[in-house]
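Methods — Computational structure assignment.
A single polypeptide chain was analysed. Its primary sequence is given first, followed by the predicted tertiary structure written as structure tokens.
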Amino acid sequence: MSEGPIKAWRDAHKPPRVSTPDNYRVCYQKLGARRSWCGRRPKVAYDDWTKVTCADCLAAREADRIAAGSS
């Protein structure tokens, strides 16, 4: 596919990718789990959502909540 006007128009309307930089990321990790909620192997992780700064963990939690049908 060429880099034509249609692709340029689509790219102009894409939502920005949002992720927390690694040096600011604090992930959520269940006790005993080897990976964080977002699937990464975190350098810093807690089992307390109030300390989480990882946008990907927060998005994954929200997606799981919606998929479960709870509010």
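Note: Helices lie at 5-12, 55-68.
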